[in-house]
Each structure stands twice: as C-alpha cells, then as structure tokens.
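ok so i was messing around last nite and threw this chain in just to see what happens. nothing serious, just curious
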Amino acid sequence: MVRKLVLVMAAIALTLAACTTSTAGPTGVVTGVAYACVGLVLAGSTLPRVTVLLYSGPTVVASTTAKSGAMYRFSVAPGSYKVETQQVGFHYRPKVVVVRAGHSVTADFPDYCK
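result:
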C-alpha cells in the first residue's frame, strides 16, 4: 500500500513539474565600463571598487561591484532602466537606457577626476 502511494505521488510530482516549467522571455543587455573617481593612481596601489546599480522604477533589479575600469554586464528584460554608480565620496549622474530584446546598450562612467 505504501509503495503504491509513493508511486502515485511520484507520478503526480512529475506531471506537475512538466506543467510548471517556464521559459524566460527575450532579453537585452546593459553593459559598460565604470571607473571610480580616483584621480591619478600610483604604481603598486590597489584600484578602488565601484558599484553599478540598475533600476527599474525605484527598484534595484541588478547590481555588481568591480574594480575601477572593469566592464559590467546585466542581462535584463526589455524596458527602460536607470543605471548609476556608487562610490564613497563621489556620485555620477544616473543614465537612462532603453533595452530592446536581442540588443545591447552601453552606459559608460569614465573617471572625470583625472
């Protein structure tokens, strides 16, 4: 009896799994290079890090922290997004990008402090 119940439960689980699989919709890419505002970097010093945030409305939908001058990349659903960076003591003006399915859009944040 217990074995039959286990087999029935397994069959139901497999059926539900087949019905609930989802496919992701089309995506686009937001990419760029973000520099920390550091001025002149001395040889042998460690590059500071900069955080890149991607907003959909007021909500952060993606973020990454990388060394200054590194490329960032977010794969997201089509739509309008705001990209901004965060660094202690400095703030870039946010950039607005429109992502289209299958396309890439670039938002770079150069080091204006040099």
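not much to say yet. The first strand starts at residue 28 and ends at 34.
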